[in-house]
Write a structure and sequence with these properties.
The complex is a heterodimer.
Chain A: H1 6-136, H2 142-158
Helix pairs in contact in A: 1-2
Chain B: H1 9-17, E1 22-24, E2 32-34, H2 35-57, H3 66-85, H4 93-109, H5 117-124, H6 138-160, H7 162-171, H8 179-223, H9 234-277
Antiparallel strand pairs in B: 1-2
Helix pairs in contact in B: 2-4, 3-4, 4-9, 6-7, 6-8, 6-9, 8-9
The chains are: A mainly alpha, B mainly alpha.
Amino acid sequence: MSITVTLIVQGLAFLAVAWLVMRFGWPEIMAAIEARQKQIADGLAAADKGQKELGEATSRAEAIVREARERAKLVEDQAARRANEAIEAAKRSAQAEGARIVIAAREEVATETGRAREQLRKDFGTMVVSGASRLLEREVDAKAHNQLIDKLADEIARG
Amino acid sequence: MAAEGDAGGMTGYIKHHLEHLTVSVGDSPFMTLNIDSIFFKLLLAVLFLFFFIRVARRATAGVPGKLQCAIEMMVEAIDGIVKDTFPAKTKFIAPLALTIFALVFLMNFMDMVPVDLLPAAAHAAGIPYLRVVPTADLSTTVGMALCVFVLIQYYAIKHKGVGKFIGEFFTAPFHAHGVIGKIILAPANLLLRLIEEMVRPLSLSLRLFGNMYAGELIFILIACMTLGAGLASGITWVMAPLQWFAGFLWTVFHILVITLQAFIFMTLTIVYLSMAVQEH
Protein backbone atom coordinates (compact mmCIF):
# COMPACT_ATOMS: atom_id res chain seq x y z
CA MET A 1 0.00 0.00 0.00
CA SER A 2 2.96 2.26 -0.52
CA ILE A 3 3.48 4.57 -3.45
CA THR A 4 5.72 2.98 -6.02
CA VAL A 5 7.03 3.69 -9.48
CA THR A 6 3.72 2.30 -10.69
CA LEU A 7 2.37 5.84 -10.48
CA ILE A 8 4.46 6.94 -13.45
CA VAL A 9 3.12 4.13 -15.61
CA GLN A 10 -0.44 4.84 -14.47
CA GLY A 11 -0.10 8.56 -15.03
CA LEU A 12 1.35 8.13 -18.51
CA ALA A 13 -1.32 5.59 -19.41
CA PHE A 14 -3.96 8.03 -18.23
CA LEU A 15 -2.56 10.89 -20.32
CA ALA A 16 -2.22 8.60 -23.33
CA VAL A 17 -5.88 7.62 -23.08
CA ALA A 18 -6.90 11.26 -22.75
CA TRP A 19 -4.85 12.15 -25.82
CA LEU A 20 -6.36 9.27 -27.82
CA VAL A 21 -9.85 10.34 -26.81
CA MET A 22 -9.12 13.90 -27.90
CA ARG A 23 -7.48 12.84 -31.16
CA PHE A 24 -9.63 9.95 -32.39
CA GLY A 25 -13.05 10.06 -30.76
CA TRP A 26 -14.11 13.44 -29.48
CA PRO A 27 -14.14 15.45 -32.75
CA GLU A 28 -16.19 12.85 -34.62
CA ILE A 29 -18.80 12.58 -31.89
CA MET A 30 -19.05 16.35 -31.46
CA ALA A 31 -19.33 16.75 -35.23
CA ALA A 32 -22.14 14.18 -35.32
CA ILE A 33 -23.96 15.92 -32.46
CA GLU A 34 -23.59 19.35 -33.99
CA ALA A 35 -24.63 18.15 -37.45
CA ARG A 36 -27.73 16.54 -35.96
CA GLN A 37 -28.54 19.68 -33.98
CA LYS A 38 -28.28 21.69 -37.20
CA GLN A 39 -30.48 19.20 -39.03
CA ILE A 40 -33.11 19.40 -36.32
CA ALA A 41 -32.96 23.20 -36.24
CA ASP A 42 -33.27 23.33 -40.04
CA GLY A 43 -36.16 20.88 -39.95
CA LEU A 44 -38.00 22.93 -37.35
CA ALA A 45 -37.41 26.12 -39.32
CA ALA A 46 -38.68 24.44 -42.49
CA ALA A 47 -41.75 23.17 -40.66
CA ASP A 48 -42.43 26.69 -39.36
CA LYS A 49 -42.05 28.11 -42.84
CA GLY A 50 -44.36 25.45 -44.29
CA GLN A 51 -46.94 26.17 -41.60
CA LYS A 52 -46.82 29.88 -42.37
CA GLU A 53 -47.08 29.28 -46.11
CA LEU A 54 -50.01 26.95 -45.58
CA GLY A 55 -51.76 29.66 -43.55
CA GLU A 56 -51.13 32.23 -46.25
CA ALA A 57 -52.35 29.88 -48.98
CA THR A 58 -55.50 29.09 -47.00
CA SER A 59 -56.35 32.75 -46.50
CA ARG A 60 -55.62 33.40 -50.17
CA ALA A 61 -57.91 30.55 -51.19
CA GLU A 62 -60.63 31.85 -48.89
CA ALA A 63 -60.35 35.30 -50.44
CA ILE A 64 -60.62 33.84 -53.93
CA VAL A 65 -63.69 31.78 -52.99
CA ARG A 66 -65.33 34.80 -51.37
CA GLU A 67 -64.71 36.93 -54.46
CA ALA A 68 -66.07 34.23 -56.74
CA ARG A 69 -69.17 33.92 -54.61
CA GLU A 70 -69.73 37.69 -54.75
CA ARG A 71 -69.32 37.70 -58.49
CA ALA A 72 -71.70 34.80 -58.90
CA LYS A 73 -74.28 36.63 -56.81
CA LEU A 74 -73.82 39.73 -58.95
CA VAL A 75 -74.31 37.74 -62.15
CA GLU A 76 -77.37 36.04 -60.68
CA ASP A 77 -78.92 39.39 -59.70
CA GLN A 78 -78.19 40.82 -63.10
CA ALA A 79 -79.73 37.81 -64.82
CA ALA A 80 -82.83 38.02 -62.67
CA ARG A 81 -83.19 41.71 -63.38
CA ARG A 82 -82.76 41.17 -67.09
CA ALA A 83 -85.28 38.37 -67.10
CA ASN A 84 -87.79 40.57 -65.30
CA GLU A 85 -87.14 43.37 -67.76
CA ALA A 86 -87.59 41.01 -70.68
CA ILE A 87 -90.83 39.71 -69.25
CA GLU A 88 -92.08 43.23 -68.65
CA ALA A 89 -91.16 44.28 -72.17
CA ALA A 90 -92.84 41.25 -73.66
CA LYS A 91 -95.93 41.93 -71.60
CA ARG A 92 -95.98 45.54 -72.70
CA SER A 93 -95.55 44.75 -76.37
CA ALA A 94 -98.16 42.00 -76.14
CA GLN A 95 -100.63 44.42 -74.56
CA ALA A 96 -99.91 47.04 -77.24
CA GLU A 97 -100.27 44.46 -79.94
CA GLY A 98 -103.53 43.23 -78.41
CA ALA A 99 -104.87 46.81 -78.21
CA ARG A 100 -103.89 47.41 -81.81
CA ILE A 101 -105.62 44.25 -82.93
CA VAL A 102 -108.75 45.17 -80.99
CA ILE A 103 -108.78 48.68 -82.50
CA ALA A 104 -108.28 47.30 -86.01
CA ALA A 105 -111.05 44.75 -85.45
CA ARG A 106 -113.36 47.44 -84.16
CA GLU A 107 -112.61 49.65 -87.14
CA GLU A 108 -113.27 46.78 -89.49
CA VAL A 109 -116.50 45.93 -87.72
CA ALA A 110 -117.57 49.59 -87.96
CA THR A 111 -116.69 49.72 -91.66
CA GLU A 112 -118.49 46.49 -92.35
CA THR A 113 -121.49 47.65 -90.33
CA GLY A 114 -121.57 50.92 -92.22
CA ARG A 115 -121.27 49.17 -95.52
CA ALA A 116 -123.98 46.66 -94.62
CA ARG A 117 -126.27 49.44 -93.47
CA GLU A 118 -125.70 51.35 -96.68
CA GLN A 119 -126.44 48.25 -98.69
CA LEU A 120 -129.46 47.47 -96.60
CA ARG A 121 -130.76 50.99 -97.01
CA LYS A 122 -130.21 50.87 -100.69
CA ASP A 123 -131.93 47.51 -100.96
CA PHE A 124 -134.69 48.61 -98.70
CA GLY A 125 -135.18 51.79 -100.68
CA THR A 126 -135.34 49.80 -103.86
CA MET A 127 -137.80 47.38 -102.27
CA VAL A 128 -139.92 50.21 -100.97
CA VAL A 129 -139.92 51.90 -104.38
CA SER A 130 -140.76 48.67 -106.14
CA GLY A 131 -143.40 47.88 -103.50
CA ALA A 132 -144.91 51.33 -103.77
CA SER A 133 -144.84 51.26 -107.58
CA ARG A 134 -146.55 47.92 -107.56
CA LEU A 135 -149.04 49.30 -105.10
CA LEU A 136 -149.65 52.34 -107.23
CA GLU A 137 -149.52 50.24 -110.38
CA ARG A 138 -147.35 52.63 -112.04
CA GLU A 139 -143.85 53.67 -112.36
CA VAL A 140 -142.80 55.88 -109.62
CA ASP A 141 -140.59 58.57 -110.73
CA ALA A 142 -137.56 57.77 -108.83
CA LYS A 143 -136.12 61.20 -109.25
CA ALA A 144 -139.24 62.88 -108.11
CA HIS A 145 -139.59 60.79 -105.09
CA ASN A 146 -136.02 60.17 -104.29
CA GLN A 147 -136.00 62.74 -101.61
CA LEU A 148 -138.92 61.10 -99.94
CA ILE A 149 -137.47 57.63 -100.30
CA ASP A 150 -134.09 58.68 -98.88
CA LYS A 151 -135.79 60.25 -95.94
CA LEU A 152 -137.71 57.06 -95.40
CA ALA A 153 -134.65 54.93 -95.77
CA ASP A 154 -132.88 57.10 -93.24
CA GLU A 155 -135.70 56.69 -90.80
CA ILE A 156 -135.61 52.93 -91.24
CA ALA A 157 -131.86 52.81 -90.90
CA ARG A 158 -132.00 54.85 -87.76
CA GLY A 159 -134.42 52.34 -86.64
CA MET B 1 -15.90 -17.58 -0.63
CA ALA B 2 -13.16 -19.09 1.49
CA ALA B 3 -10.71 -19.97 -1.21
CA GLU B 4 -7.43 -19.03 0.40
CA GLY B 5 -7.88 -19.01 4.12
CA ASP B 6 -4.85 -21.19 4.46
CA ALA B 7 -2.32 -19.11 6.40
CA GLY B 8 -3.39 -17.28 9.52
CA GLY B 9 -7.16 -17.42 9.21
CA MET B 10 -8.96 -14.10 8.86
CA THR B 11 -5.89 -11.88 9.23
CA GLY B 12 -4.00 -13.93 6.70
CA TYR B 13 -6.93 -13.83 4.32
CA ILE B 14 -7.22 -10.05 4.53
CA LYS B 15 -3.48 -9.50 4.26
CA HIS B 16 -3.33 -11.78 1.27
CA HIS B 17 -6.12 -9.80 -0.40
CA LEU B 18 -4.31 -6.51 0.13
CA GLU B 19 -1.06 -7.69 -1.38
CA HIS B 20 -0.19 -6.50 -4.89
CA LEU B 21 1.31 -8.62 -7.59
CA THR B 22 4.65 -6.85 -7.94
CA VAL B 23 7.75 -6.86 -10.06
CA SER B 24 10.88 -5.23 -8.70
CA VAL B 25 12.67 -2.96 -11.15
CA GLY B 26 15.24 -1.47 -8.77
CA ASP B 27 16.85 -1.73 -5.38
CA SER B 28 14.60 0.51 -3.30
CA PRO B 29 11.04 -0.43 -2.28
CA PHE B 30 9.85 2.47 -4.45
CA MET B 31 11.12 0.74 -7.56
CA THR B 32 8.44 -1.91 -7.75
CA LEU B 33 5.71 -2.14 -10.37
CA ASN B 34 2.22 -3.19 -9.30
CA ILE B 35 1.54 -5.43 -12.26
CA ASP B 36 -2.07 -6.07 -11.35
CA SER B 37 -3.02 -2.38 -11.14
CA ILE B 38 -1.25 -1.63 -14.40
CA PHE B 39 -2.79 -4.62 -16.14
CA PHE B 40 -6.36 -3.86 -15.10
CA LYS B 41 -6.02 -0.17 -15.84
CA LEU B 42 -4.66 -0.85 -19.30
CA LEU B 43 -7.30 -3.51 -19.91
CA LEU B 44 -10.10 -1.11 -18.96
CA ALA B 45 -8.50 1.72 -20.91
CA VAL B 46 -8.32 -0.44 -24.03
CA LEU B 47 -11.92 -1.56 -23.50
CA PHE B 48 -13.08 2.03 -23.14
CA LEU B 49 -11.05 3.26 -26.11
CA PHE B 50 -12.27 0.37 -28.25
CA PHE B 51 -15.92 1.18 -27.70
CA PHE B 52 -15.45 4.94 -27.76
CA ILE B 53 -13.41 5.12 -30.94
CA ARG B 54 -15.55 2.49 -32.65
CA VAL B 55 -18.66 4.54 -31.93
CA ALA B 56 -16.90 7.74 -32.94
CA ARG B 57 -15.80 6.24 -36.24
CA ARG B 58 -19.33 5.13 -37.02
CA ALA B 59 -20.96 8.24 -35.55
CA THR B 60 -23.80 9.42 -37.74
CA ALA B 61 -25.66 12.69 -37.66
CA GLY B 62 -28.78 10.72 -38.57
CA VAL B 63 -30.63 8.38 -36.24
CA PRO B 64 -28.02 7.23 -33.69
CA GLY B 65 -27.70 3.75 -32.25
CA LYS B 66 -28.19 3.10 -28.57
CA LEU B 67 -24.47 2.94 -27.78
CA GLN B 68 -23.89 6.12 -29.73
CA CYS B 69 -26.75 7.73 -27.79
CA ALA B 70 -25.19 6.73 -24.47
CA ILE B 71 -21.75 8.02 -25.43
CA GLU B 72 -23.21 11.19 -26.93
CA MET B 73 -25.06 11.86 -23.69
CA MET B 74 -21.81 11.65 -21.74
CA VAL B 75 -19.87 13.68 -24.27
CA GLU B 76 -22.49 16.39 -24.40
CA ALA B 77 -22.90 16.56 -20.61
CA ILE B 78 -19.15 16.83 -20.05
CA ASP B 79 -18.76 19.32 -22.89
CA GLY B 80 -21.48 21.42 -21.24
CA ILE B 81 -19.77 21.30 -17.84
CA VAL B 82 -16.41 22.28 -19.35
CA LYS B 83 -17.91 25.10 -21.43
CA ASP B 84 -19.73 26.44 -18.36
CA THR B 85 -16.69 26.25 -16.11
CA PHE B 86 -13.55 26.69 -18.14
CA PRO B 87 -13.19 30.33 -19.19
CA ALA B 88 -10.91 29.85 -22.21
CA LYS B 89 -11.33 27.91 -25.42
CA THR B 90 -9.77 24.50 -25.16
CA LYS B 91 -9.59 21.28 -27.09
CA PHE B 92 -8.08 19.05 -24.45
CA ILE B 93 -9.96 19.69 -21.20
CA ALA B 94 -13.25 18.09 -22.21
CA PRO B 95 -11.69 14.86 -23.58
CA LEU B 96 -9.51 14.79 -20.47
CA ALA B 97 -12.57 15.08 -18.25
CA LEU B 98 -14.35 12.34 -20.16
CA THR B 99 -11.28 10.13 -19.84
CA ILE B 100 -11.10 10.74 -16.10
CA PHE B 101 -14.77 9.95 -15.60
CA ALA B 102 -14.81 6.86 -17.78
CA LEU B 103 -11.51 5.43 -16.56
CA VAL B 104 -12.10 6.09 -12.89
CA PHE B 105 -15.62 4.72 -13.13
CA LEU B 106 -14.48 1.56 -14.90
CA MET B 107 -11.61 1.02 -12.45
CA ASN B 108 -13.95 1.59 -9.54
CA PHE B 109 -16.42 -0.78 -11.12
CA MET B 110 -13.93 -3.63 -10.73
CA ASP B 111 -15.03 -3.49 -7.08
CA MET B 112 -18.40 -4.87 -8.18
CA VAL B 113 -16.78 -8.09 -9.32
CA PRO B 114 -17.08 -10.62 -6.49
CA VAL B 115 -14.08 -10.05 -4.30
CA ASP B 116 -12.66 -13.56 -4.50
CA LEU B 117 -13.55 -14.38 -8.09
CA LEU B 118 -10.56 -13.01 -10.01
CA PRO B 119 -7.95 -13.63 -7.26
CA ALA B 120 -9.12 -17.23 -6.96
CA ALA B 121 -8.96 -17.67 -10.72
CA ALA B 122 -5.48 -16.15 -10.74
CA HIS B 123 -4.50 -18.41 -7.87
CA ALA B 124 -5.60 -21.41 -9.87
CA ALA B 125 -3.47 -20.14 -12.76
CA GLY B 126 -0.44 -19.88 -10.47
CA ILE B 127 -0.49 -16.13 -9.76
CA PRO B 128 -0.05 -15.68 -6.01
CA TYR B 129 -1.47 -12.18 -5.51
CA LEU B 130 -4.02 -10.13 -7.41
CA ARG B 131 -5.79 -6.89 -6.63
CA VAL B 132 -8.35 -6.06 -9.24
CA VAL B 133 -9.35 -2.48 -8.31
CA PRO B 134 -6.63 -0.16 -9.66
CA THR B 135 -8.12 2.87 -7.87
CA ALA B 136 -7.68 1.10 -4.53
CA ASP B 137 -3.96 1.33 -5.27
CA LEU B 138 -2.49 4.62 -4.06
CA SER B 139 0.02 4.61 -6.93
CA THR B 140 -2.76 4.79 -9.50
CA THR B 141 -4.63 7.67 -7.88
CA VAL B 142 -1.43 9.60 -7.14
CA GLY B 143 -0.28 9.05 -10.70
CA MET B 144 -3.48 10.52 -12.08
CA ALA B 145 -3.54 13.36 -9.55
CA LEU B 146 0.07 14.27 -10.41
CA CYS B 147 -0.85 14.41 -14.08
CA VAL B 148 -3.68 16.78 -13.18
CA PHE B 149 -1.23 18.80 -11.07
CA VAL B 150 1.19 19.12 -13.99
CA LEU B 151 -1.66 20.11 -16.28
CA ILE B 152 -2.79 22.78 -13.81
CA GLN B 153 0.68 24.36 -13.85
CA TYR B 154 0.92 24.01 -17.64
CA TYR B 155 -2.41 25.76 -18.24
CA ALA B 156 -1.61 28.45 -15.68
CA ILE B 157 1.68 29.28 -17.42
CA LYS B 158 0.14 29.02 -20.88
CA HIS B 159 -2.66 31.47 -20.08
CA LYS B 160 -0.81 33.91 -17.84
CA GLY B 161 2.78 33.80 -19.01
CA VAL B 162 5.75 32.83 -16.86
CA GLY B 163 6.20 36.26 -15.21
CA LYS B 164 2.64 36.59 -14.04
CA PHE B 165 2.53 32.91 -13.03
CA ILE B 166 5.53 33.34 -10.72
CA GLY B 167 4.39 36.75 -9.57
CA GLU B 168 1.09 35.36 -8.36
CA PHE B 169 2.91 33.13 -5.90
CA PHE B 170 3.81 36.28 -3.98
CA THR B 171 0.83 38.56 -4.55
CA ALA B 172 -2.19 36.29 -3.98
CA PRO B 173 -4.34 35.49 -2.04
CA PHE B 174 -3.46 38.52 0.14
CA HIS B 175 -3.42 41.68 -1.94
CA ALA B 176 -1.43 44.68 -0.75
CA HIS B 177 -1.35 48.14 -2.27
CA GLY B 178 2.03 49.59 -1.33
CA VAL B 179 5.43 48.16 -2.16
CA ILE B 180 6.22 47.63 1.51
CA GLY B 181 2.94 45.87 2.10
CA LYS B 182 3.61 43.60 -0.85
CA ILE B 183 6.99 42.65 0.51
CA ILE B 184 5.57 41.98 3.95
CA LEU B 185 2.78 39.80 2.60
CA ALA B 186 4.96 37.93 0.09
CA PRO B 187 6.14 35.12 2.42
CA ALA B 188 2.62 34.45 3.67
CA ASN B 189 1.33 34.42 0.12
CA LEU B 190 4.07 32.07 -1.02
CA LEU B 191 3.41 29.71 1.88
CA LEU B 192 -0.34 29.63 1.32
CA ARG B 193 0.05 29.23 -2.40
CA LEU B 194 2.46 26.32 -2.02
CA ILE B 195 0.15 24.62 0.46
CA GLU B 196 -2.78 25.17 -1.89
CA GLU B 197 -0.94 23.68 -4.82
CA MET B 198 0.26 20.69 -2.79
CA VAL B 199 -3.11 19.99 -1.24
CA ARG B 200 -4.90 19.65 -4.58
CA PRO B 201 -3.23 16.49 -5.88
CA LEU B 202 -3.11 15.14 -2.35
CA SER B 203 -6.83 15.54 -1.76
CA LEU B 204 -7.69 14.30 -5.27
CA SER B 205 -5.69 11.12 -4.92
CA LEU B 206 -6.41 10.39 -1.26
CA ARG B 207 -10.17 10.92 -1.59
CA LEU B 208 -10.49 8.43 -4.41
CA PHE B 209 -8.02 5.98 -2.92
CA GLY B 210 -9.61 6.12 0.54
CA ASN B 211 -13.11 5.50 -0.76
CA MET B 212 -12.12 2.61 -2.96
CA TYR B 213 -9.76 1.06 -0.43
CA ALA B 214 -12.42 1.20 2.27
CA GLY B 215 -14.99 -0.22 -0.11
CA GLU B 216 -12.74 -3.09 -1.05
CA LEU B 217 -11.93 -3.74 2.59
CA ILE B 218 -15.59 -3.95 3.49
CA PHE B 219 -16.17 -6.44 0.67
CA ILE B 220 -13.29 -8.47 2.06
CA LEU B 221 -14.75 -8.30 5.59
CA ILE B 222 -18.14 -9.39 4.27
CA ALA B 223 -16.39 -12.30 2.58
CA CYS B 224 -14.83 -13.17 5.96
CA MET B 225 -18.26 -13.93 7.42
CA THR B 226 -18.11 -17.46 6.11
CA LEU B 227 -14.35 -17.81 6.10
CA GLY B 228 -13.24 -21.40 6.53
CA ALA B 229 -16.81 -22.54 7.22
CA GLY B 230 -17.86 -26.00 6.20
CA LEU B 231 -21.24 -27.23 5.07
CA ALA B 232 -21.45 -29.42 8.17
CA SER B 233 -21.43 -26.47 10.54
CA GLY B 234 -24.80 -24.98 11.50
CA ILE B 235 -23.36 -21.47 11.73
CA THR B 236 -22.59 -21.55 8.03
CA TRP B 237 -26.29 -21.88 7.24
CA VAL B 238 -27.05 -18.81 9.36
CA MET B 239 -24.14 -16.72 8.15
CA ALA B 240 -24.42 -17.49 4.43
CA PRO B 241 -27.76 -15.68 3.90
CA LEU B 242 -26.55 -12.83 6.11
CA GLN B 243 -23.38 -12.60 4.09
CA TRP B 244 -25.33 -12.58 0.86
CA PHE B 245 -27.60 -9.82 2.14
CA ALA B 246 -24.70 -7.72 3.47
CA GLY B 247 -22.83 -8.11 0.19
CA PHE B 248 -25.96 -7.13 -1.74
CA LEU B 249 -26.51 -4.02 0.38
CA TRP B 250 -22.92 -2.89 0.13
CA THR B 251 -22.84 -3.48 -3.64
CA VAL B 252 -25.95 -1.37 -4.15
CA PHE B 253 -24.53 1.39 -1.99
CA HIS B 254 -21.18 1.11 -3.70
CA ILE B 255 -22.72 1.74 -7.13
CA LEU B 256 -23.46 5.22 -5.85
CA VAL B 257 -19.98 5.63 -4.38
CA ILE B 258 -18.04 4.60 -7.47
CA THR B 259 -20.07 6.86 -9.76
CA LEU B 260 -19.86 9.75 -7.34
CA GLN B 261 -16.11 9.40 -6.87
CA ALA B 262 -15.54 9.32 -10.62
CA PHE B 263 -17.68 12.40 -11.01
CA ILE B 264 -15.95 14.24 -8.17
CA PHE B 265 -12.50 13.51 -9.57
CA MET B 266 -13.61 14.81 -12.98
CA THR B 267 -15.39 17.90 -11.67
CA LEU B 268 -12.56 18.90 -9.35
CA THR B 269 -10.08 18.54 -12.19
CA ILE B 270 -12.16 20.87 -14.36
CA VAL B 271 -12.56 23.33 -11.49
CA TYR B 272 -8.84 23.31 -10.64
CA LEU B 273 -7.90 23.85 -14.27
CA SER B 274 -10.44 26.67 -14.57
CA MET B 275 -9.05 28.33 -11.45
CA ALA B 276 -5.54 27.98 -12.84
CA VAL B 277 -6.30 30.08 -15.92
CA GLN B 278 -8.24 32.76 -14.04
CA GLU B 279 -6.52 35.85 -12.75
CA HIS B 280 -6.25 36.16 -9.02
